[in-house]
Design goal:
The chain has 11 helices and 18 strands. By secondary structure, it is of the alpha+beta class.
Length: 365
């Protein structure tokens, strides 16, 4: 049976789906209404039913609801990945009933009949405007059902539960289960995957590989071969990136960590003239980022020509008022960094000699 829930403002009617569970020995029953039979509602009902029973059984025997059982095979049923995740969290076995075999779960089949007859039927003439209101009415009826004496046992469901089922239940987990949806994604060339229009990084070694993604309300977890390789806080910002530095290739990480401070620290290790040249390069640019490429070139000159020659070239360039990687490169390529400096009364004019590989020369006039 379903129960209509009428929206108080729009008048829209939602047919509430009723979830029923019971303990196998005592028939102690739980029931609630949900908006639909989606996996999120299915697992939420499971979670609340175990909290109602106050413990975890060894196994759960569900019917073949599509949200929970992806393949209702008689011998090897397929379990929804989120349902399996729930089972692992509670350390419980999922044993779906065989298709069209109600005798595999006779206790809950009887519990469904009892809920329909003793709880839902008396509510059929009432109008409910919210699920909270409906579930309060179901809870009141459930209290009566579980405390009604069963003729065949001479005990109520509650009394029999306390004697037989409750002692066998294991404790509930210390932390609540968080529902997660799963999807498969392929890592793009920029070592990110897309989840709901937001991009999350994974280690760059996994570029081009397929990964499994668990999406919860607060986290995005990424797995490869059943091993978690990345975890991010979930973001709702569309077309933005959540990137961890540890996931970057070395070249990308080096670029991202560039700053005025890192370049000045590097220059200080080369020498004071190099540091002054780096300061002057920054001063020529409106924004620090505009100087980064030129300074990478200066760093390359140190790798190519050595720290001592670079320091000498910077010393000469500083004295002559020249600022920039091109001037330093020209000096070093033509071994001009050790030439005597021109007389201070002379004016230095840069000229370009077109016949010598685009090198720059400087002439005192």
């Amino acid at each position: 049976m379903t129960v209509p829930v009428v929206h108080p403002k729009t008048g829209e009617v939602t047919q509430a789906q009723v979830f029923v569970a019971c303990c196998g020995a005592s028939n102690y029953t739980y029931a609630e209404a949900t908006e639909s039979q989606t996996i999120k509602n299915w697992l939420g009902s499971h979670q609340r039913s175990l909290a109602f029973f106050g413990g975890v059984p060894v196994a759960i025997v569900p019917d073949n609801l599509k949200s929970g059982v992806t393949d209702p095979c008689r011998y090897e049923p397929g379990i929804n990945r989120s349902y399996q995740d729930f089972a692992e969290h509670y350390n419980v076995i999922i044993l779906p009933a065989r298709p069209k075999c109600p005798r595999d779960k006779p206790k809950v089949e009887n519990a469904v009949q009892q809920v329909e007859r003793h709880i839902l039927a008396p509510l059929r003439d009432q109008t409910f405007t919210s699920f909270k209101q409906l579930n309060e009415a179901i809870a009141a009826g459930l209290e009566k059902l579980n405390h009604r004496t069963m003729k065949s046992y001479g005990l109520s469901r509650r009394e029999l539960f306390e004697q037989v089922d409750q002692p066998e239940l294991r404790p509930l987990p210390s932390h609540a289960f968080e529902f997660g949806e799963f999807k498969t994604a392929k890592v793009s060339f920029d070592y990110h995957i897309e989840v709901n229009r937001h991009y999350y990084s994974v280690p760059y070694e996994y570029v081009g590989k397929s990964v499994s993604v668990k999406i919860t309300e607060s986290l995005v977890q990424i797995f490869h071969d059943h091993q978690r390789i990345a975890i991010h806080e979930r973001s709702s910002l569309p077309f933005q990136h959540s990137t961890e530095e540890g996931h970057m290739p070395p070249a990308h990480l080096a670029y991202k960590t560039q700053s005025r401070e890192t370049f000045l620290a590097w220059a200080q290790n080369v020498g004071p003239a190099t540091k002054q040249q780096v300061i002057d390069i920054f001063e020529k640019k409106a924004h620090d980022e505009q100087a980064f490429r030129a300074l990478k070139g200066v760093q390359h000159l140190r790798t190519t020509h050595g720290a001592e020659r670079l320091e000498a070239a910077c010393n000469r360039a500083n004295a002559m008022g020249m600022v920039g990687q091109r001037y330093l490169k020209s000096m070093l390529q033509n071994k001009l960094e050790s030439d005597p400096l021109p007389d201070e009364t002379h004016k230095v004019i840069p000229i370009h000699h077109a016949n010598v590989r685009g090198s720059e020369y400087y002439q005192a006039t």
